[in-house]
């Protein structure tokens, strides 16, 4: 599933061809949304916004197209009338005079009024966006210290969109490694220094993933590994998807565990064994 950085990068690509432009024709592949085609066609896109893993396309009549890629959704940006060659099911197509932004395979799509946007079942309950310009490490610390989050293991907490919006599987493992905290610990088990380390790692890793199209490893190390001919799948992350391979920091083999069907990776030496 695409995580916050991937959705933000998709929004950037889409914005280049639709932001501030008139959408000559809107097309929906889901019958329940086809009544909105006439309402949105001919309108101008005023802004594209991401909130965690959700993408919001705002139109100049105060309607907003909400989309969540879920596991299989994918946005493409193409020249007008040059649709992608794919077996995926078309869900949304936004056609300007020169380009098209098209979404395939996703099903969590809605057209919302301003009031519906405020009360939306997903948007109204998510926590701070990991890529928000207003998010600072101390705000993450405040979330960690909140009573409803203090007793939960970090391994589970960091996938809760109500805690922080935009974190998924790979970011979870990488943030916890960067902060050098064990995934079995709870916020209430952490020292103030560890909570601040988590706050800083959350921002640093999320921003790095956004800027580099998903790379979370140390960038100087990445450059060196590239020169050595190491494949992207192995230099991309510190620990994620590197089970059984030596930790780049200490040489200990990276551990993989499955928690509720989701993969988590960590270094037992660097991240310690919880008391």
Written overview of the protein:
The structure is a single chain. The chain is α+β, with helices and mostly antiparallel strands and 275 residues long. It has 2 domains: 4-119, N-terminal domain of MutM-like DNA repair proteins, CATH 3.20.190; 137-266, Helicase, Ruva Protein, domain 3 (Orthogonal Bundle), CATH 1.10.8.50. It has 9 helices and 10 strands. Strands 1-6-7-5 form a 4-stranded antiparallel sheet. A hairpin with a 2-residue loop joins strand 2 and strand 3. The longest helix has 21 residues, at 192-212. It is globular, with a radius of gyration of 20 Å.
Number of domains: 2
Strand content: 15-25%
Rg on CA atoms, Å = 20 Å
CATH topology of the largest domain: Helicase, Ruva Protein, domain 3
Oligomer: single chain
The arrangement of helices and strands along the chain is HEHEEEEEEEHHHHHHHEE
Sum up the overall morphology in one term.
globular
Which structural class fits the helix and strand makeup? alpha+beta
Question: Largest beta sheet, briefly?
Answer: 4 strands, antiparallel
Quickly count the helices: 9
Mean pLDDT: 95
Residue runs with pLDDT of under 50 for 5 or more positions: none
CATH-derived architecture of the largest domain: Orthogonal Bundle
Instruction: Trace the largest sheet across and list its strands.
Output: 1-6-7-5
CATH C-level class of the largest domain: Mainly Alpha
The total count of strands amounts to: 10
Q: How far is the first residue's CA from the last residue's CA?
A: 33 Å
Question: Roughly what percent helix?
Answer: 25-40%
């Amino acid at each position: 599933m695409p995580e916050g950085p991937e959705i933000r990068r998709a929004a950037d690509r889409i914005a280049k061809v639709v932001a501030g432009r008139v959408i000559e024709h809107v097309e929906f592949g889901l019958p329940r949304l086809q009544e909105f085609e006439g309402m949105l066609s001919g309108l101008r896109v005023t802004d594209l916004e991401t909130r965690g893993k959700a993408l919001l396309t705002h139109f100049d009549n105060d309607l907003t197209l909400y989309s969540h890629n879920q596991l299989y959704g994918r946005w493409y940006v193409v020249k007008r009338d040059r649709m992608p060659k794919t077996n995926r099911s078309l869900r949304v197509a936004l056609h300007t005079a020169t380009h098209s932004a098209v979404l395939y395979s996703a099903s969590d799509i809605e057209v919302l009024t301003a009031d519906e946007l405020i009360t939306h079942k997903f948007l109204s309950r998510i926590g701070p966006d990991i890529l928000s310009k207003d998010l600072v490490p101390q705000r993450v610390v405040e979330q960690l210290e909140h009573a409803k989050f203090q007793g939960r293991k970090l391994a589970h907490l960091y996938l809760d969109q109500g805690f922080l919006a935009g974190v998924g599987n790979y970011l979870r493992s990488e943030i916890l490694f960067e902060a050098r905290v064990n995934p079995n610990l709870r916020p209430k088990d952490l020292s103030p220094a560890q909570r601040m380390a988590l706050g800083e790692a959350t921002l640093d890793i999320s921003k790095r993933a956004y800027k580099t199209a998903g790379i979370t490893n140390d960038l100087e190390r990445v450059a060196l590994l590239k020169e050595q001919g190491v494949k992207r799948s192995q230099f991309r992350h510190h620990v994620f998807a590197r089970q059984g391979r030596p930790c780049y920091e200490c040489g200990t083999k990276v551990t993989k565990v499955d928690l509720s069907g989701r993969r988590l990776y960590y270094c037992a030496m660097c991240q310690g064994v919880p008391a």
